[in-house]
Amino acid sequence: MKTNAVLEAIKNRRSVRTYTEQQVSKEDLDAILEAATYAPNGMHLETWHFTAIQNKEKLTLLNEHIRGAFAKSDDKRLQERGNNVNYNCYYHAPTLIIVSNEPTQWWAGMDCAVALENIFLAAQSLGIGSCWINQLGTTCDDPEVRAYLTSLGVPEHHKVYGCAALGYANTPLKEKKLKEDTITVVG
Ligand SMILES: Cc1cc2nc3c(=O)[nH]c(=O)nc-3n(C[C@H](O)[C@H](O)[C@H](O)COP(=O)(O)O)c2cc1C
Questions:
Q1: Which region, left, alpha or beta, applies to residue 152 given φ > 0 means left and ψ of -120 to 50 means alpha?
Q2: Ligand 1: which of 15, 98, 135, 166 to mutate, judged by most atoms within 8 Å of the beta carbon?
Q3: Integer Cα distance of 78 and 74 in angstroms
């Protein structure tokens, strides 16, 4: 199989769910955020926003607000998470990038998804682990969560389509098991 640095980064990336305390440097974070803004986006509107948080207390408080929203849910599984003091949706990663967009275009979430993949691959290329964190997707419009997101700098009318946890992996990464029959090539 043909390979190069980009293909290796794609193939070696795995979701990281245990992190060391080591913070991502400003230089690396800046490079990752810049990579995000180079992603393709519908009609080149660039209405997305990237809110990067590296403050442990602020991340803990964000998790508390998400737990609060889950605790109000009708869904038993979410209620359990909300009431579990040990639940941490971002796996205690030292950095979290919130990726949001104006929900006015139907492809707003797609813009965010391709930006997130750029984030994951840029991080991988710098030796930094990452994971997609989805819990703000369903909780960003809870009043308490929204007020806190606004205080962090997430634009008020934006929906959160995903987040990227970033940091250094604390455990070895799993090997990828490929699912069969997911590719068709028509010659
Ligand atoms: C749309 C989307 C949402 C996801 N949400 C979460 C999440 O909230 N928490 C999490 O741990 N992983 C989340 N993931 C990561 C997937 O679980 C992961 O990519 C999948 O298990 C394949 O593993 P790999 O990334 O290591 O290849 C999400 C991935 C995508 C694309």
A1: alpha
A2: 15
A3: 8
Per DSSP, the residues of 89-126 read TTTT-SEEEEEEE-TTSTTHHHHHHHHHHHHHHHHHHT
What pTM did the predictor assign? 0.98
29 and 35 Cβ atoms separated by less than 8 Å: no
Whole-angstrom distance, CA of residue 113 vs CA of residue 57:
27
CATH superfamily of 17-167: NADH Oxidase (3.40.109.10)
- Calpha distance 111→151 (Å, rounded): 24
- Using one digit for the tens of pLDDT, what is the confidence trace for 59-98? 999 999 999 999 999 999 999 999 999 999 999 999 999 9
Residues near 73 by beta carbon (within 8 Å), at least 6 away in sequence: 79, 82
Tell me how crowded residue 140 is: count the other CB atoms within 10 A of its CB: 20
CA distance 151 to 146: 9
Q: Is 92 in the pocket of ligand 1 (CB under 6 A)?
A: no
Question: In the chain, where are the structural domains located?
Answer: 17-167
